C-alpha cells in the first residue's frame, strides 16, 4: 500500500549518494593536501578554501582539468544506490519519484560524477555551489550571493532548508505537489532541511515575501511538514565516527535541557512532538542498507 502520490527524493551528495567527501577526495587525488591544510588553518570559509586549493594546485603543482576529471570519475558511488536511482526514476504514474540533489560541493563535481555513472539525466534539479572552468582552472563560488538569515547553523554560502523550501514552493506553483519528501543526509548542513521536513516550515528560513503569495486552498500549511516525510540520517562513517546530522537530531528530539522539574504540559507536549519527529528519522550506516530501506519505502522490487 503506502501513501499514494508523488514523492520527492532529496539527496545530500557527499557521504550520502557517494561514499566520499568529493571536495577532500579530489584534493587528495591531486596531492594538494598541504595547500588545503594551510588555507584551512588560515580560517577560509569552505567554498573559498576549495577555490583557493584548486587554483594553487594548478599554479604550484601543475594539476590540469584532466587530473580533476580523472579524480571525479574515480569517486566511489555504490552500485546499489545507482540501481536504486534508476529504479526510482523508472516509476510512472501517481507514485512517481522526482530526484533532486542539495549539496555543498559544486556543480562541476556533481555533474561529472553523476554523468560518469549515467545518472545525471535522472536528477531533476541539482542545487550546489556554482563552478566553472576558466583557463584550465576550476573556480568555485558560493550558492547564495546574499545572506540567507537562517538560524540553524547553516554555512554562509548555503542554507539547504531555504533551497528545499523554495524548490517545493516553485514546484507547487507549477502544479506539482508532493505527498511526501524523503531526505537522505549525514552532515551539519542537512540539519536545517531535516528539521523543516520533520516539524514543518512555519518558522522557515527568511525567504521574504514569496511564501505568502498564493491565496489557493491549502490554507497556511507549509509545503514541508507532511507526516509522510522521512529523514534517512546516516549514523556513522566507514571509520566508525558518528555523523553530525544524527547527533544533532537526537539532541534536538530529547531537548538539550532535560531538567527534572520540566513536567509541565508544554514540556510533555514538546517531548511527544519530539518523539513523533524522531520516529520519522530512519537510521542507516552503509549504502547497501540505505538502498534496501529506500526500495522498501518506494515499493521497488529488491
Ligand atoms: Mg554529506
Ligand atoms: Zn538553514
From TrEMBL:
Residues 207-228 have a biased composition (Gly residues). This is Uncharacterized protein. Pfam families: Put_Phosphatase. Signal peptide: none annotated. Transmembrane segments: none annotated. Its cofactor is Mg(2+). Mg(2+) binds at residues 12, 14, 186. GO terms for molecular function: metal ion binding; phosphatase activity. Substrate binds at residues 23, 104. Residues 207-231 are annotated as: Disordered. Keywords: Hydrolase, Magnesium, Metal-binding. The active site is at residues 12, 14.
